Amino acid sequence: MTAIASKTDKETNPAAELLDLFYPFHYKGGMALEDTVRCGQLSRKQVAILWLIRSEGGQERRMRRKDIERLIQTWFEVSSSAITKALRSMARPPLNLIQIVEDPQSAREKQVLLTPRGERFLSTMVTQGRQFLQQIVDQLSDQEISSGIHFLRRATAVQEYLLSQSAAHDGKRR
What we know:
Shape: globular
Helix content: 55-70%
CATH class: Mainly Alpha
Number of domains: 1
Low-confidence stretches: none
Structural class: mainly alpha
């Protein structure tokens, strides 16, 4: 079988067609979206860190440094020292997007929180990302949009479930 699934495979196996669509969407679309939200100032890792704080950091927009490291390492092949370097550069001028503070529950632990400037930058990232995606949405019907959102929500939920099952299974083997 070739790297691209044949037409017959795609007709009988939706996973084959999804695979052929996923990588171009992920790399071309995902990278273009990342480039947009970087606003010409941040690395991909730094964008991912800010997005993690937005999505996992609660209303306080703060996370433990070790949680950031654990989650970022599932997305990027990156060392702990590279994460530290990315965080420190985000905490210093000219960015001043985050603050790294001692965790009140453990002097050895650090927490990362957004500064007011970081909040504004994150808001700009979200606005830029929405504008980027709006260009795609504008080309789709209401039904296509609704179906696409439904599919992505379900696929994300299934993926998270499968990952949790895999982690639970790995934990039992240790």
